[in-house]
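User: Can you predict the 3D structure of Cellulose synthase? Sequence below.
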Amino acid sequence: MPVTTRWLAASGSVCLVSLALAAPAMAQASTHWRIEDPAVSGEVTGTGAPHRLDEAPSAEEQMPPQLAQAPAAEATPQAAPTPANVDETALRFFARQGDTRRLEIEIARLRALYPDWTPPADPLAVPVNVDEQLEAVWELYSQGRLAEARQAIAQRQGDEQGWQPPADLLDRLALAEARERLINASEIDQYETVIRLGSENPQLLTCGEVDVLWRVAEAFARTERLARAQDAYRYILTSCDNAQERRATLQNASQLLDQPMLDELLALERFDDAGTGEFAPVRDDLARNAVARGGEDATATVPAEQLARVDRLASEGRAASDARLLGWYYLQRENYVEAEKWFRMARESEDSADASEGLALALMARGQHAEAEEIIYPWRGETEDTRNVYLGAAANLLGTEPRPTLAAEVLTRIVAEVAAARDVAAARQLGWYARAWEQHETAGQWFSTALGWNPDDEPSAYGLALTRHLLGDAAGLADIKRIWAGRSDRIQQVGLAVTEPAPAVPTTPAPPVQQRSSAPAAAPAAMPQTGIAASAYAPTSPIAPNVAPQAAPATATLAPATNTPTQPTRRSSCGAGSASPGPEASLQQGWCLMDANRPVEAARAFEIALQASSERIRRDAAWGQSLAYLRSELVDEAAVAAVAAPQTPARANELQTAILAQRAAGAFERGRYVETLLALDQRAQIAPERIDLMVLRGYAYLRLNRTGDARRVFRAVAGTGDREGLRGLAAVEAELQQTR
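Assistant: Sure. Here are the predicted structure tokens for Cellulose synthase:
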């Protein structure tokens, strides 16, 4: 049992009610890990041969030279004090501070040094040290202000001839300075220095300093001395009792040791009366990590026990992250039925972009393209991967044979996303889809647009050649053949022989594919028009490949709380009825323009609406203008517009989080990583940090060479089951390898 204390607060004072010291705690306090094991050579430990190392400066090294003499008195050998002369200054100080943990450690230390000494039943009952100057030094020490403590000691020695600080205080300062140097060296990856400082200060290698033991173990592992790292972890697991620290030890070891070494440490697990092992959470995480690796690499082998463990966790705990891990694992192994099962379970627990992306891929592999398109559509703008999956689902849906009859709503959103992403494959499929429904003019426009985005796309050129031939455009066909001469035999054969059977006329009417010109395409009489003008999505001529479309940020999904207009049907519907529309009409016009993805014009309309006398109109106008500027990636202007009129707390918070998120992303893209972290820190004060922003934070730390912070963030991301966390950890390891 560890040292235990119980305090009661009564009448403004703190009273120690009971104090029990058990043998195991005494053993832990009086022993330390033998970093220089006699069975291990100096070459193995890295402490045998002297060699120059860059060291992190300590507080003592930063002092003026004259202050470095302060601890000289401790070099003089002194006889061990009798129990009556035991220095209890530190004990009484920790008692007055209410620092239970340090009080326990101090009592255990004194018992180990002076076996005949008996701790006072109540340290506060004994007259306290009235030396206020000495108390101030102890206070500085307890706050970690070591250099200031040294300064205060030197100052008093200069003022009072013959005064010497307690030896215990000097010992503690020296040990704290050694700890500080070791931690500093660990933070900047000076692993040889960490090992040397641990060897020189064995008092730090105890159960009371588990963090130091972890750092020494990591130093051994990073310098390819895995056996010594395992020894450090084994010492903790065989000597220390704190349950949380024992679990954390296994978690640290799992990041550095191979599986056989880790299995040896897992064998040191302790069990409660019910037979539950203390390392069950660690085993769960190890199983999750193994399955996550399997989800990244189809050749990775995952032990059956670990796979079954994650299966049980996902089934019993219903955690979306566990179900997603299994979904990606089975998707990598082309077991699409199992993948679909787990991704559906993940979406039932927590719908997310990652689960929807995986489910869409599984459904596409099984030919269920319509459901895949519907599932991934709400998440299409989350990441580049989700956008690509959506475009793939849309292209596969359009290319399904026989051609499906798609609702006008589905066709409209496919056209909008294809135009925004300038996706050649999907544009080509729109051409083939239109051709299947005998909308040849529309088909030709889509093939031409695909070629405008990629002039070397032969399938689009072939589709355009077939369309030119079908429409009797001999000159257009000849021009295509001239361009592709020597590059495509089948294009040269168009018009000379039967190159493709005529498309079958669908048995049921279908809405026409969205046109790529300013007027609706002429469709067969039996096929109704959708009434949606194509010019809302694309120009009348092919788009030059080097012109990037305007990307709408994630904040574009925000909608006004009131007066949100319906989806406009034509570009002209956003025009006002008069040359100078009033504020109310300008507000409606602004929302209409936002729906048409014309944020610059929308911002101007909202500016007019801001002149209204109605507080409601001004509030909605300021809200809309902020969204318009965010969609235009004008973050500073969005921040100004956000305060143009008072907003509800919910709206203000939503705008501020969106502005800071976009500001962080913009700073990262410009290489301003410190500004990135500042923006993320500000956002974290008003809203929880999303996973994608945590990933951004991790890479910002990595670019600033703060590998320790980057590793911590990516570990947290990986703990949620997100694959970006594992990618980030791999990037950290690669960076460390390059700097060695």
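DSSP finds 34 helices and two strands in the chain. Strands lie at 4-10, 13-20.
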